[in-house]
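Quarterly update from the structural biology core.
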Amino acid sequence: MASAASSIQTVSWKRLDGIDLLRGLAIFLVLIDHVHIRLILNKVPYNKFFPAVAHFIGGNGEPGVQIFFAVSGFLITSISLRRWTPLSKIRVLDFYRLRFARIAPLFLLLLTVLCGLHVAHVPNFVVTARTGGLGRALLAAFTFRINVLEARTWYLPPNWDILWSLSVEEMFYLFFPIVCFLFAGNRLFGRGKLFTTTLIMFVVLGPFGRTVWTHGNLIWQDYSYLGGMEGIALGCLTALIVSRTQFSRSVLMILGCIGGAIVALSLIFTWQIHRDWLGRSGLYMTVLGIGSCMFIVATAQTNWKAPLVLRPLLKLGQYSYEIYLAHMFVVLALLSLFLHAGKPMNLVAAYFVGTILISGVLGASVAKLYSEPMNRLLRSRSAATTSKTAAIAFGPEALGDRAAS
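Predicted structure, tokenized:
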């Protein structure tokens, strides 16, 4: 009988191009939005010279994160279904071990680096007393409450600020296996009805979490738990649907076209949507999440292959977690060079392109040299204490088992 460790190496599944494409699009939107924000904050009026470009770039960072959330919920649920079917058989501690192995190594390394830069008083990395100082920031990071801290005080330095989405995501996954264990089987309600109802509840409450319950707090409108968990819940529901229903090819084509159109139009008309009833009601992100999930269903069940022209986005998507946690170092470094050069308008395009390319290379390097080896090491160490079922299921990493914060 093969050992658990060897089983980890032999079982694998193909990646899904549709998933990687959405994650690549999401991290691309986040990258260009963060460059846009730095330029605006430093009074670089590039938007006057390139209004159409600035109109598309500005404001699409949050929609990018919503796409991340939907993809994340789909992946976690799909992979959990491969490991434990039904979900009521989920091994809670094994779920936490696997999640820890994927998320913790790079997360802890990032916090270590940020603490060192804070102590060294490096500009743009010092956590000020206004937001509670370094100790409070660390406590918020480890308890998945960066978003709460910022809503109560103010924005943290950029490399800390991006952890708000990880706080939302990991708070959801803290309770995900417990809810699966209790509600996804026959323990309380038959056939997982309460589990599905719980996910639908998050979707219904999402718009309220972005509007009514923010009480005018602009940061909480973007960073609230309910606002982000809605997208994750949509992804979870999508995984359940895909696992239970095989749609016809014609239906899948319709779903893919409509879903792709919703995503594209939502990103093109971001500012207009924010001003109309769809944005004011908080339903904009809900519609975007639904469109993303429709695209996921179509591409997952058809095993859609992206054309060669989209391969760069696929690569960005494959290393989205590493790129997300590392990209602000690139954004700030190139900004420093840009400001030192006197804010030349002819280098604005180079700033955008350079950020995307260097962040992609940095993310891929961090993944291959550090986070993926650490992931395998931690999983192999815990494999000896897990059942064969859990051990052989580590393979779906090839499907895209990477976080999308």
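Residues 151 and 157 are 14 Å apart (CA to CA).
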